Amino acid sequence: MHSSSQRFYVREQDMIKAVTGRCFGDKDFRGGLENGILLCELLSSIKPGLVKKINRLPTPIAVFSLVFRN
Hints:
Layout: H1 4-20, H2 29-33, H3 37-46, H4 60-67
Organism: Seriola dumerili
GO molecular function: myosin II head/neck binding
Protein name: Calponin-homology (CH) domain-containing protein
C-alpha cells in the first residue's frame, strides 16, 4: 500500500504528464523535476509565453539560468 505522500507524487506526476505530454520515465518525482526542464514545460503549458526559453543543456549552470532569469 502506498503512503499518502507516494499517492500525492503519483497523482502529480499524472497531472504533469496530462498537461505537458511528458512523463518522468524511470525517475522519481524529485529526479524528474531536478533539472527544471519539465517544470518549465509545465509552466509554459499552463501559461504560454511565461518561460521565454528553456535551456536544455545538461549542466548545473543551465539550471541557474532557468531559475534566476529576470
